[in-house]
Amino acid sequence: MKITSAKFVVSNAEVASCPNSPLPEYAFIGRSNVGKSSLINMLTHRKDLAKTSSRPGKTQLINHFLINENWHLVDLPGYGYAKVSATAKKKFQQFITDYFAAREQLVAAFVLIDIRLPPQKIDLEFLEWLGENQVPFFIVFTKVDKLSVSKANIQVANYKKALLEETWETLPEIFITSATNGSGREDLLQKIAEINSTLR
């Protein structure tokens, strides 16, 4: 898929205020420091489409971006150790849940995971929640440029093992990416293009 246009549409704190559009949506979500904004900018070839920050937890709203005038990329708040108040954290964690439960336009979620870390309980629990709620999703490992090929393969194998131990019968499709060198970009966009072609 070639990205010919990518533009910010709107930010919302409530699912009910999200765009009233029939276009398919692909949600990107992960821990607060996983590099989500950088990945979105890499995918769209736009340096500043999604705002990056050195402070984890910067994204606290549901952000819609219109891609190629025919689908939405949705940037969701991160989960994890965001340095915000307990009240604020509870609020935006709730609208993450509301989004997945109520947003009919959602086609699939891309769950971002830092490939450098061992399997994290919070990630495994979130994946389990998506599965229990029948939300289609893919796993996107980020920051692969920080590891050797052999180490990256070991990390992915460890994650697959952890998922199978969590009683997953079928593993979700996995993508390995780097916002720094562009690894995985074409694979991710091709997957979205394939899904979009089945929706027509």
Please, how many helices? Answer: 5
Question: How far apart are the termini?
Answer: 16 Å
* Most strands sheet: 7 strands, mixed
User: What is the top-level CATH class?
Assistant: Alpha Beta
* Cα radius of gyration in angstroms: 16 Å
Using DSSP, what is the number of strands? 7
Structural class: alpha/beta
Number of domains: 1
Average pLDDT figure: 87
Question: What best-fitting shape do the alpha-carbon axes yield?
Answer: globular
Provide the CATH superfamily.
P-loop containing nucleotide triphosphate hydrolases
Q: So, CATH architecture? A: 3-Layer(aba) Sandwich
* Helical content class: 25-40%
N to C succession of SSEs? EEHEEHEHEHEH
Biggest β-sheet: strands ordered side by side in the sheet = 1-3-4-2-5-6-7
Which fold does the CATH topology refer to?
Rossmann fold
Task: Give the uncertain stretches in residue-range form.
Answer: 53-58
**Approximate strand percentage:** 15-25%
Write a structural description.
- The protein starts with 5 loop residues before the first strand and ends with a helix.
- The chain has a 7-stranded mixed beta sheet with strand order 1-3-4-2-5-6-7, with helices on both faces.
- The protein has one domain (6-199): Rossmann fold, CATH 3.40.50.300.
- With 200 residues, the chain is of the alpha/beta class.
- It has helices at 36-44, 86-102, 121-132, 149-165, 185-199; strands at 6-12, 25-30, 62-67, 71-75, 106-114, 137-142, 174-176.
- The longest helix is centred in the middle third of the chain and has 17 residues, at 86-102.
- The radius of gyration is 16 Å and the shape is globular.
